[in-house]
Amino acid sequence: MAGHVDIRMKVDAPLEVTWRIANETDSGGPTGDSGRHSPGHEVVAWEPERNRITYRITTAADSAGHSWSYDVERTTDPVNKTAYARRWGNEYFVYSYAFWQYTGSGSVSEIRCVCDFEMAPGSPLGDREMEAFMERGTRAAMAASARAAQQEAGRPAAAGPDGGTAE
User: Fold this and answer.
1) pLDDT for 7-22, tens place per residue?
2) Strand duo 69-77 + 108-119: pairing
3) pTM for this one?
4) Looking at domain 3-166, what is its CATH homologous superfamily?
């Protein structure tokens, strides 16, 4: 078995703004104090010339008390407005990959994230449970980026509870 998550969120901000806000790595990005990124993202390596950053991530405990620690390498392609991430360093994942795509026209953009993974035997969560866990975390990250992009674009936050328009 394997897990799969595919989420889209509309953002009331131009593509260039959404891309920059979602992928910045300094001045309020993942290591900054903007409050947009989850706590527990420690930068292990940053290679700006290769558009690559590696984090050591530790999540807050879920309702069952499970906390997850792992490394993520994220490589961005600014020309095509895509990002690829791979996760490793956690015995409970056989593999875990994510693809982020940013598209838009005019004053509206969209963020899409596709995650594919497989949980290892003995993991405290199965594939379906991890799908739900990843979906919540991904939606929260997208919503934070959407709110920040919309704010920078001078637009009010979307009416939905997640800060963007989920699909």
Assistant:
1) 999 999 999 999 999 9
2) unpaired
3) 0.82
4) START domain (3.30.530.20)
